[in-house]
Amino acid sequence: MIQVQCSGLPADWVNAWLAAVGTTVLDQRIRLHWASHGSPVAVLSAQGTDPVECLIESWPDAGGLADLPIAETWRGTTGLQRKVPVEAFRERVQVARGLCHSWTLSSSMTDLCVDKDGLVVHAPFDPSGPGTIKWLHHRLKKVHKHVDKNANHIQNALMGQPALANDNGLGFDHGRLGASSDKTDRLVNPVVEVLAFFGLSLLPARGPGGDRCLDRFANITVRQKGWLMHERRQKFHWPAWEQPLDCNGIDALLDTWQPSSKSRWALLGIFSAWRSVEYESDGDYTQAFGSERI
Known about the structure:
alpha+beta; globular; single chain; three-stranded antiparallel sheet
């Protein structure tokens, strides 16, 4: 196995953790584990080849992103934006079922949780935003334009020397925000943002379903994989592990891991973990997630 340690993907940064997972989704030759010494960072590996070269080969192009099932217009189905009626969502699901990117629907919203207006509810990792950043696919396409598909751009980002872009990214990175008095532009690492989107494939959103889901005046909380109750609020929990895993192995690990059962972490190769800390806004639509170590 050829291994590359990525100082630009620290485990305690939720976007970087999602991005590291996203590398294994984009290219199934890539395995992921975390350096256990010092502050954990991602270690990518592949059999007989450079995992960064694998990632560059598999980097998505604009045409591929435009054909994702969560696109505004897609294969003759009803158009989607931020507010998605149940009927439009179900139509998309029926057409997308069986396609490799059908997860883009199930990891961003669910009709097993319906708001009082009869709209599907978005997952925590599909936060709302002001102006022109209101839905996930639009954000992805926008930040993807900042990435040059070349070895230097992508490799530098993984090594902690990114070419930052004036963008809001996917909308949940706390690093894009300055102090409340800071009026400078918001900057994101576009390579990390694109990879983080694909990391969401392992985090489907669900709801309680049943008759309550059809009550247009109900207010049922959406549930997304990895989001657990802590101090009466849902927070995302994520681990660092020591054994190289592909995307299916990571998926199985996340299904098995219970953050509260620390005595069993070592059996799964997990040596550290974090949970999200929500950004407290000043009453606007700004959302972001920091982290605290468990």
